[in-house]
Amino acid sequence: MLQVQDLQLFMQIVHTGNISKAAAQFQLTPAAASAALKRLEQHLQSQLLVRSTRSLRLTPAGERFLSHCQNALTALAQGEQELAMSQAQVGGELRLSAPSDLGRHLLLPWLDEFMQRHPAVRLRLELSDRLAGLYREPVDLALRYGPVQDSAHVAFAIASVPRRVFAAPSYLALQPAPTHPMLLTQHACVLYLIDERAFDKWWFQEAGTPFSVNVSGNRISNDAEVVHRWIVSGKGIGLKSALDMSEDMAAGRVVPLLSEFHGPDLPLNLVCANRQVITPAVLLLRDFLREQCALQLAKIAQFC
Q1: Residue 183, pLDDT score
Q2: Closest CA to 129 of 158, 97, 81, 164
Q3: Residue 290: how many CB atoms within 10 A of its CB?
Q4: What are phi and psi of 221, to 5 degrees?
Q5: 170 and 210: one domain?
Q6: Within this chain, do residues 182 and 134 fall inside the same structural domain, yes or no?
Q7: Where are the beta strands (DSSP E) in 116-254?
Q8: Distance between CA atoms of 13 and 23, rounded to whole angstroms?
């Protein structure tokens, strides 16, 4: 394998025309520099320099390799510089909207860690379950479940999240767990209100065929975290993102039901109002959220 220092040393030998002078630049002995040059030539299976007692000159192979060596070292130096600059310059304001449940249970501690890594970033966070467009919100970014509706927006895929039916052990102590989705009609279901409409049609699939069940219950809320709390406290059965319920699942506060009938996973996207808002801070946030979601989903894989 080529070593960067060997390439740098080769360039310095060509520049100075003297192995000893080049060796001194790298705080090496002339013998160590000669050994490095020999190692490079053995790797390339080509002689790069013709050595004499008074001078050095490039061989034809050395002349061809010289330009490639220079390009490679320049590209590495530029890459290091750009990375250092991007890390040093990450700052500005992130105006982010996120779902209430995911925001309070997972996103808040994640964002604390993100801002510890990048203290120059300023955060403006809005927790909302509204599906209004980004153009009507005082935000640039939105973390949202489901497919992106507006083609004018730029969406980064963050995770593919299982959606499951959940119940608390306290609820299941009083009611037998349903063994088929159609039996949900016999249970109290806690419902989520989306744009003033109760989400009371739950989709499943059996042997690859999708089907829906109309559920009902006496508790409905437009706040996803309220639905979350009702499920955990045993007030009824709910259909939720496994990511939202992950901590409760791992702690045994809720149990996933009917997993063999689950439908397709739910996409979680970081949606940008336009390309102009995609700053280095946004790209770092995207990568950070992908990392955190992957770790959290791996944590609950055994339950789903």
Answers
A1: 96
A2: 97
A3: 16
A4: -145, 150
A5: yes
A6: no
A7: 121-127, 141-145, 154-161, 163-167, 190-194, 197-198, 201-206, 209-214, 219-221, 238-241
A8: 8
Predicted local confidence at residue 146, as pLDDT: 85
Do 186 and 258 fall into the same domain? yes
At which residue do the structure tokens 């437009």 appear?
222
Which of 1-15, 194-208, 211-225 is most confident?
211-225
Domain of residue 28: give its range: 4-88
* Arithmetic mean of pLDDT, 118-134: 79
CATH number at residue 218: 3.40.190.10
The structure tokens listed for 126 are: 């809005």
Give the total number of structural domains in the chain.
3
Q: Which H/E stretch holds residue 249?
A: helix 246-251
- Cα distance between residue 266 and residue 58, in whole Å: 61
- Residue-wise pLDDT for 150-204, tens only, equals 667 788 999 999 999 999 999 999 989 999 999 999 999 999 988 778 889 999 9
Judge if 205 and 259 occupy the same domain: yes
| Pairing state between β 219-221 and 92-98 | unpaired
Question: How far is it, in rounded angstroms, from Cα 266 to Cα 287?
Answer: 19
CATH code at position 22: 1.10.10.10
pLDDT tens figures, 27-65? 889 899 889 889 988 998 999 898 876 778 899 998 899
Name residues whose C-beta falls within 8 Å of residue 40's C-beta, 6 or more positions apart in sequence.
Answer: 2, 6, 7, 10, 48
What is the value of pTM for the model shown?
0.68
